[in-house]
Amino acid sequence: MKPPTNGLMIAVPRGALFEDTVDLLASLGLDTRELRNNDRKLLFEDIGVITMRPSDVPTYVEAGAADLGVTGKDVLAEQALSQGAPGEPHGSGREVYELLDLGYGRCTMVLATTAGPDPAAQALRRLGVMRVATKYPNIAAHHFEETGRQAEIVEVRGSVELAPLTGLVEAIVDLTATGTTLRENNLVIREEILECTARLIANPVAHKLKARAIDGLLERLRAGGAA
Amino acid sequence: MIHRIPSGTRDVLPEETREVHVITEALRGVFEAHGYGEISTPALEYEAVLARADMAEARPAYRVFDESGAVLVLRSDMTVPIARVVATRYPTVEPPLRFCYVAHCYRGVRPQRGQPRELLQAGIELIGSPAPQGTAEALTVMCDALDAVGLKGYRVGLGDASLFGALMASLQVPERARPELLATLARRDFVQLEGLLAASGLPDDASRLLLSVPQLRGGPEVLAGLPLPAAEAVSGMRQVHELLPGEVAERVIFDLGLLRSIGYYTGAVFEVYDPALGAPLGGGGRYDELLGRYGRSLPAVGFALGIDRLHIALTGEERGTGALADEAGGSGTGPTHPAREEGTPR
Q1: Any domain includes B82
Q2: Nearest residue, CB atoms, A43 vs list B186, B218, B344
Q3: B20 burial class (0-12, 13-18, 19+ CB within 10 angstroms)?
Q4: Is this prediction's pTM over 0.80?
Q5: Which of A146, B99, B253, B333 has its CA 20 to 30 A from that of B143?
Q6: What is the C-alpha separation between B125 and A194, in angstroms, rounded?
Q7: Do the beta carbons of residue A200 and residue A219 sit within 8 Å?
Q8: How far does chain A reach from its first CA to its final CA, in angstroms?
Q9: Cβ–Cβ below 8 Å for A64 and B189
Q10: Contact B123/B38 with Cβ under 8 angstroms?
């Protein structure tokens, strides 16, 4: 039997967006049992699914190794703001089409500092620059550039909350869904930068050569109540 | 000893060179047979001369100073140098003029993306032949060239660079809102486009058209039943299609959202897709205003094919492991082909 994804290959992100994405595929009639039960397998050829880190999804989709993919707006924005070619203020990002806001995985990119008097504002006033730790150096740099402030971006790979508590930096730029982790570390949100949700992206060539399959899937996703 | 070369450049050794020659000789044969004479121009030109053209994202990226302090650039395409040649070397010759080339061009890259700084392109420029006849000739030569190279599964996306602008104008989108909408479409961010339209205060049916029309692509049926403003904008595409020989016409996918990243295109634009590659093999379009900027106002059309991408697509088709196996062909009739072949994605 032909899988309900019309023969399309879909890149599915492991991690925070995985459960909702698999639920969505299941609602389209896809047999997702093995996908749910086998977290070591990466290629599920019979149902047209490959799984990977969210930040790798645009890479596979851009190259055409997957026709469609699901990833967070945070990933897309971070890669879109990567250093541009000469003459462009910023790179125009991956060559992928952003087709649909899937509505789930909602979270916010925020600027946060320790509670009490704002140490970042103080550093900016007295030292002329604030140090900011983040896993999203491009989004952070862009935000401070746009708001006319000088910031020294410190790229870290995990547990960003630790950086301001140890005096490494005055502030962090990070993604938060409920704010619990921030609160537990005595951090408060100072600014909201970007609302992020899961997005459906497509390879440009697949978008033309498999137009009917993709449009059919989009129609069912929209009808299924995606935002 | 290992000596580095810049990222995005590479050495081409004899085995690859032999394969590339087979491709370029096949292309030259087709171009020549259609009456296109091959020309060469300098890789280095004066920046002030090339800057007369609106290249947008594809503008020259590498600059050097010569002995007298003048700024030279490495050309980023062959269309603009050929526009210069036409104005300078053929100021009075009766059009149409037909040129072809196989030449290296130089582009800026984004780091870590595997983009080429130096790319070998083959293409034609047809100067002085207006739409729709000139466009149909260019598309015909292009498909003959791709056939001669041995490519089987390719398709040609055909759109119009002025379509979205015309649609915005006819739907009375305020002037100040247009550049952002166009830039958003150029990024193919349909989520943001929807958001901008929802916030624009435009009537719902206008917003719906501006979101849905650029997502239309497929066979001739996508041109049928379009609302009036869009239908006017696509009549040119239909005229081109009617002039194409059957085997070329059936390769065409109408794409009402097709935009090219180079700024000088004015009308019909097209791109080549192959199931074996996730990016276009090449493309082109009409640039009816460009020659005027060099002092010889003539309508013109041309295309360029990326030789490396052609080579990758050819080897992909030979292996039969294209990641993007084709659908039935967008004609809207007949059964859908098995959409994916056996084997792992490329």
Answers
A1: yes
A2: B344
A3: middle
A4: yes
A5: B333
A6: 45
A7: no
A8: 30
A9: no
A10: no
Q: Any chain A CB within 8 A of the CB of B333?
A: no
Cβ neighbours of B34 (radius 10 Å): 17
Whether residue B346 lies within 8 A of chain A, CB to CB, comes out as yes
Give pLDDT tens digits along chain A (227 positions).
455 677 899 999 999 999 999 999 999 999 999 999 988 999 998 999 999 999 999 999 999 999 999 999 999 999 988 755 444 444 457 889 999 999 999 999 999 999 999 999 999 999 999 999 999 999 999 999 999 999 999 999 989 999 999 999 999 999 999 999 999 999 999 999 999 999 999 999 999 999 999 999 999 998 875 44
Determine phi and psi for B231, rounding to 5 degrees: -65, -40
- Partners of A45 on chain B (C-beta within 8 Å) are 344
B186 CB neighbours in chain A (<8 A) are 92
Mutate: best of A76, A205, A214, partner B, most B CBs <10 A:
A205
What ipTM is given for this predicted complex?
Answer: 0.83
Rounded-to-integer distance, Cα A150 and Cα A145, Å: 7
Q: Which residue of B has its CA nearest to A210?
A: B327
d(CA A224, CA A109): 27
**What pLDDT, in 10s, does the model give residues B38-68?**
999 999 999 999 999 988 777 899 999 999 9
Residues A98 and A202 in one domain: yes
Contact B63, B71 (CB under 8 A): yes
Do the chains contact at B187 and A62, CB–CB below 8 Å? no
Are B158 and B244 spatial neighbours (Cβ–Cβ below 8 Å)? no
Do the chains contact at B190 and A82, CB–CB below 8 Å?
A: no
Query: Is B344 touching A (CB cutoff 8 A)?
Result: yes
Domain containing residue B136: CATH number:
3.30.930.10
Q: A200 φ, ψ to 5°?
A: -95, 125
Asked if residue B152 is part of any domain, the answer here is yes
Asked if residue B301 belongs to a domain, the reply is yes
Q: Are strands B268-273 and B71-74 parallel, antiparallel or unpaired?
A: unpaired
Residue B330 gets which letter from DSSP?
S
Residues A102, A121: one domain? no
- Asked if the Cβ–Cβ distance from B191 to A203 is below 8 Å, we say no
Q: Which residue in B has a C-alpha nearest to residue A202's C-alpha?
A: B188
DSSP string, A106-138: -EEEEEEEESSS-HHHHHHHHHS-EEEEES-HH
Query: Does A7 sit within 8 Å of B340, measured CB to CB?
Result: yes
Distances (CA, A) of A125 to A133, A150, A151, A171, A176: 19, 10, 12, 14, 27
**B33, part of any domain:** yes
Nearest C-alpha neighbor of A74 from the set A177, A206, A181: A177
Phi, psi values for residue B343, rounded to 5°: 110, 165
Q: How far is CA A199 from CA A57, A74, B15, B310, in A?
A: 11, 10, 43, 31
CATH number at residue A52: 3.40.190.10
Q: Which domain holds residue B37?
A: 14-158+247-319
Q: Which domain holds residue A15?
A: 10-106+197-223
Do A85 and B61 lie within an 8 Å CB cutoff?
Answer: yes
Residue A5 lies in a domain: no
- Terminal CA-CA length for chain B: 34
